[in-house]
Amino acid sequence: MIDIFKKGQKTALIAGFSTVFFAIAKAIVGFISGSIVLLADALHSAADSFSTFFAWVGLKIAKKEPTEKFPYGFYKVENITALIISGLILFAGFEIIKESIGKIFVVGELNIPFIAIGVAVLDAVVMFFIGTYEMKVGKQINSQSLTADGKESRMHLFSSSLVLIGLLAALFKIMYLEGIMGILISLFIFKIGIESGKDSILALIDVSPSKEIEEKIKKVLGNISGVRGFENLKLRKAGPFVFGEVRVKLGRSVSINRAKEISDNIEKEIKKKVKSVDSLMVGVAPEAVEGRKLCIPVEKEQGLDSKISDYFGRAKKFIFIEFKKSEVKNFYFKDNPFSEQKVRAGLEASKFVLKEKIDSIITKEMGPISLYALRDNVVDVYQGIDGSVEELLEKFLKGKLKLLGEPTKEK
């Protein structure tokens, strides 16, 4: 995490020194040449240099470790600095538009025109590439202030084009153009400032980061074996990181220790798949969701009249039943490809039925390897003595079947 902030700080310093250099160069040449657009762009660059400085300070403070007084860290300092940057950008736009309006009906004298034009072109090219690099690093480390500053730096390609038009207008004594170009520059600056300010304010009031991040987390939760459902997913952004909480639903047989282990694994898996997530608090609820899927080993395929098999691992077939509340929505059979396997048939059969994303099994017997493999994947195992699938399903739905706490045989 600290390396992320260091990379951001280094990028901000490179951009900052480059911006300061061109701000000074444009101010000197603009003053000597008498160009209002070059002076306005120098002011624009000066505001940029302050922006970059604040981005660097924000990243430096944000990387500090959490303290007792600030247990969630200092990440939001980065959002505050991004907001300050937006204010400076808007201020620069206001100053430029004010000067440009006064220049509309004045034809100015332009001294050292070719030096002025050269500085404008060089500024445009260099700052465009620096801005592109800032945005690239900003996206990599998810830094709002660095991305905002990169957008502003890239804008020099456009604003310097307007400066160039203004310089040529002054060179050939064309009225209006220099002032109009200055106004256009300021309008473009206002757009960037307002967008960056909006993003900063939304982050400070804990707006959900983005639908894309939310969908990624939902996808990871949906693919974790044993999680029967989830609710109350809440996300917020602080600096370049995302924090959140979610409540997942597990089976009734899950112990407190196992629930804690599952919640830790969920957080670890989400942080692995969604790099911007710093912390996700996972609450565990040992309860079933409305939609469930049950598996029962059987010997013959006779619909819901099929009889439960005496075995699990060596059963000829499995019936899979999907139901919502107490209503059967669908059921289907699958042959057990491991019924004739001499060793570890139960383990292989367990892996086979887990692929069907079941959450419960009813079986007459089960060995330790199969039982622990299924329980590790948060599948509830119930013991059914005799009867048809329909009879066992009725007992299951009424809560009359006993959870299998221990294996029924040693092997």
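(ticket continues) Second input and output from the same batch:
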Amino acid sequence: MTYLDSSCLLKIFWEEPESGAVRQAVSGEQQVIISSLTELETEVQFRARWLSGAINKRRYDAYRRKLALFRGTSPFEFHELTSTIFRRAIEQHISAKLHCRSLDRLHLAAMDELGSRRLMTNDNKQAAAARSLGYEVLTPR
């Protein structure tokens, strides 16, 4: 079970240098977890691109439809998070060997809540923090 963060999920939608590697890595997974936190961050980025004029409304709506289609598409599994991730994130932060940003810490707490020990990310700081907690990290590039 691999937890997918937004740095990788977004690369499935638009072209960035690592997009091909992320798509290939995801296609090789049997179970890819998308948490409600990852979904929120992805929706925020879609909207930011539309509101900034980087994409038009039609493209924005298409991205949102495609994300919704992932709900019924293997290997993706969407999981809601509970409020307990905040307490988990605080506990991880207090005992952590490495500093990481709040949202990254919440993703790591979400992984813990969902029982995932494997993270797919292109965020180097988040990857280092995950490794310090003993998680396996995939960084498709």
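Agent notes: The first strand starts at residue 2 and ends at 4. The chain has one domain: 2-138. Closing as not reproducible unless the customer responds.
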